[in-house]
Amino acid sequence: MIKEILEKTGALMEGHFILSSGKHSSRYVQCARLFEFPEYGDIVGEELAKLLRKYDVETVVGPAMGGVILSYVVARYLKARSLFAERENGVMKLRRGFFVRPGEKAAVVEDVVTTGGSVREVIEILKEYGANVVCVGSIIDRSGGKVDFGVPFESLLKLDLPIYNPEDCPLCKQGIPAEKPGSRGLK
């Protein structure tokens, strides 16, 4: 069902992409396209909330940009608070008056996990506040099972999409121009 929603909304794309991690791929998932359609965003958020419910989450935190809307929708179905972390001068932070209490049970959610870099940054922020990060959830795990957050990781869909180091990218070698659809603003 999730893959069909991604295809129907145009969120599953083909081309030459530079991922947030700096790696390259011929496939990209732009979940912002999914969230253009609130009815699909609600389905995805509710399904992820069902996976995370067993962790007794009090607060759901997503990294900007991919986790902002997802955090809100998942939190609504978990009857939890929704926060997001964002970059300030290149550093991920809780801003806008957001905080977590020591011991508060937090879930970190992200639309797509490839290397897990943004999720790890959010986990570290929450630990600095003394929160108890109980799980991570994503719509899509494209890590190939390689990512370990030190807490349970739940995803709605595992996609084995090609990922290349820039120096090994066959698309670059063919001279195909690359797009940077991610949110980190990599050069």
Globally, the shape reads globular
Low-pLDDT ranges: none
The total domain count is: 1
The CATH level-2 architecture is identified as 3-Layer(aba) Sandwich
* Radius of gyration over all CA atoms, rounded: 16 Å
- Helical content class: 25-40%
Number of strands: 8
SS class: alpha/beta
Mean pLDDT: 92
Strand order of the largest sheet: 5-4-3-6-7-8
What is the first-to-last residue Cα distance?
A: 35 Å
Output the CATH topology. Rossmann fold
Treating each run of at least 4 consecutive H or I residues as one helix, how many helices?
6
What keyword list fits this structure?
two-stranded antiparallel ribbon; 8 strands; 29% strand; 6-stranded mixed sheet; alpha/beta; 187 residues; Rossmann fold
Protein model, in words:
By secondary structure, this protein is α/β, with parallel strands linked by helices. The protein has one domain (2-173): Rossmann fold (3-Layer(aba) Sandwich), CATH 3.40.50. The chain is 29% helix and 29% strand. The protein has a 6-stranded mixed β-sheet, with helices on both faces. Helix 3 (38-52) crosses helix 4 (68-78). The longest helix is centred in the first third of the chain and has 15 residues, at 38-52. The mean pLDDT is 92.
